[in-house]
Amino acid sequence: MKINLNPEAIPTKISTKISTKIIVALDVPSAAEAINLCDRLPEVDFWKIGLELFIADGVTVLRELKTRNKRIFLDLKLHDIPNTVASACRVATKYGADFLTIHAAGGRAMMQAAQAEVQDSSTQLLAVSLLTSISATALADDLKVGLEIPEYVSQMVLLARSSGLQGAVCSPHEAAKLRSLLGDDFCLVTPGVRPSGAAIGDQSRVMTPRQAIAAGANYLVIGRPITAAVDPIAAWEQICQECV
Ligand SMILES: O=c1ccn([C@@H]2O[C@H](COP(=O)(O)O)[C@@H](O)[C@H]2O)c(=O)[nH]1
Questions:
Q1: Which atom of ligand 1 lies closest to the CA of 132?
Q2: ipTM of this model?
Q3: pLDDT of the residue at 5
Q4: Which domains does the chain have, with CATH numbers?
């Protein structure tokens, strides 16, 4: 497939629509760096705050993103006993994030308790099914899981849905199967996205942005290919073009 490299050839309506599906991971160590990136990329509407930034300066960044009317994915990947996770979710709702993650591996009781705490808030829980850094070999040999990745991920996402959640994080590799299992009302968010030619790094199950969208992802999470690029603005624009 030929990639269209001419931004002027892209109808604004399509590129706007694509850009709303991309969540950029703000994996930087300080509020100053996060806000600088945010202001350099005004077209990015949806930002992800992960553990590094949340631990460093989370409250400041949340406030700054809110002031700029940005959508926020608070990627804390909570995983603990039900009471602890539910309490953390209750406190997290006060930040007004759009998405918040918990690990599906925490089990049904944990997910149900967490869901009960966010039910009446503007925050939607997403269940992390299997980290996109985990390969088939690691799942079988290190974690001693007897299922293949597609079956394991389906199992975790079905468990999340039957625990009351309406969204999950998976790799683009599992998105098509999950979409056909769950229909259109379930939200699938896929990290493990790499534009053609980008370094894969510590990810294992990756696809291009265009492939991830075609597989049925509602949102793509992309971090280093944009934030660690020499020119983050050009990288963002190139990715939006690549999706068309
Ligand atoms: O399974 C998962 C869950 C979350 N992530 C997060 O997404 C970004 C990906 O960043 P890249 O730089 O594009 O690899 C990162 O913040 C992870 O914590 C994930 O990769 N996989």
A1: 1
A2: 0.99
A3: 34
A4: 18-243 (3.20.20.70)
- CA–CA separation, 98 vs 178, rounded Å? 22
Tokens of 137: 């070999």
Quick: pLDDT tens for 95-122. 999 999 999 999 999 999 999 999 999 9
**Residue whose CA is closest, atom 3 of ligand 1?**
131
CA of 8 to the centre of ligand 1 (A): 31
Report pTM: 0.93
- CA 37, CA 222: separation in Å to the nearest integer? 14
Task: Give DSSP secondary structure letters for 149-188.
Answer: HHHHHHHHHHHHHHTT--EEE--HHHHHHHHHHH-TTSEE
List, for residues 144-202, the tens digit of each pLDDT value: 999 999 999 999 999 999 999 999 999 999 999 999 999 999 999 999 999 999 999 99
- Minimal-distance CA residue to ligand 1 atom 19: 191
Separation in Å, CA 2 to CA 117, 192, 242: 47, 22, 9
Binding residue ranges for substrate: 27, 48, 75-84, 132, 194, 203, 223-224
Mark whether 94 is an active-site residue: no
Phi then psi for residue 207, to 5 deg, are -145, 170
Residue of 45, 70, 80, 98 marked active site: 80
CA atoms within 13 A on the CB side of 70: 30
